[in-house]
């Protein structure tokens, strides 16, 4: 199969993945994108030097890998009437969209991988869950791995349904951290700090804490204990967060995200 990778949809996630592939040494000329939004299309040409066409039909022929990067609700329309080359590997990054849906839309002669990346892919420090059915050739798995590895780490899953949980934890996860930084800087302002100072303190603290997690030498629970002096300030804050129900709140929030991922699949699964 050819080394050409065709992206259907050239939005935020596709742009991150394409940037990662180019940084990993892929020739921009081997990356083709279907993007109907003229402004986005031009930005992709100018910034990344890839070939961009307004519709998927113009780029799928000759591609060994297709990356489906439209919104779940746009997928049915985006795939209608497409005829990729037999044997090509189709990698979907769309939340909720199931392999059955893709096979019904594109036929049985292709190989399918479903994945869930996240936005830190933009800096090559994302993480993606991937799933392919048993019997999917190793070469197709490798094609998917190539795309997602350029965005960060990959984790292969044993069951397709696990992707709902992956979406809840890591797909949507960056937003939880951004909300936390927003809340911390708002709290800093409420305590009398200048907005810019509160923003700098909150952001840098999260980045520093992330670096400590990344070092991987100490479990996060132990890292938390190390900050928490007995009878001190951290303990006062953490007791408040725990008694206000932060942990059950996270369990419920992530359950809502996983439920929504499953619902998207249920709704769109019957939309063919
Ligand atoms: N944004 C995120 O954090 C993550 C998103 N995803 C998934 O990635 C997918 C894309 O999300 P984003 O990049 O955030 O959305 P986006 O809206 O930035 O990108 C989608 C792009 O598809 C284009 N498009 C629409 N119809 C099309 C068609 N028929 N043919 C070709 N292109 C078409 C749109 O013009 C748009 O540029 C979604 O399915 C989402 O579930 C997965 C992981 C994380
Ligand atoms: O919110 C969403 O539906 C997408 C999937 C994971 C992150 N963003």
Automatic annotation (TrEMBL):
Record has Cytoplasm as a keyword: yes
Pfam family, one: F420_oxidored
GO cellular component annotations of the record: cytoplasm
Keyword Secreted applies: no
Name of the top EC class for this enzyme: oxidoreductase
Domain Pyrroline-5-carboxylate reductase catalytic N-terminal positions: 5-96
Domain annotation Pyrroline-5-carboxylate reductase dimerisation: ranges: 160-264
Keyword annotations: Amino-acid biosynthesis, Cytoplasm, NADP, Oxidoreductase, Proline biosynthesis
GO function term, MF aspect, one: pyrroline-5-carboxylate reductase activity
Highest taxon listed in the record's lineage: Bacteria
GO biological process assignments: L-proline biosynthetic process
Catalytic activity reported: L-proline + NAD(+) = (S)-1-pyrroline-5-carboxylate + NADH + 2 H(+); L-proline + NADP(+) = (S)-1-pyrroline-5-carboxylate + NADPH + 2 H(+)
Subcellular localization, as worded in the UniProt entry: Cytoplasm
E.C. no: 1.5.1.2
Pathway it works in: Amino-acid biosynthesis; L-proline biosynthesis; L-proline from L-glutamate 5-semialdehyde: step 1/1
UniProt: NADP(+) binding residues: 8-13, 69-72
Cited function: Catalyzes the reduction of 1-pyrroline-5-carboxylate (PCA) to L-proline.
Family the UniProt entry places it in: Belongs to the pyrroline-5-carboxylate reductase family.
HAMAP family: P5C_reductase
Protein name per its UniProtKB record: Pyrroline-5-carboxylate reductase
Biological source species: Panacagrimonas perspica
Gene: proC
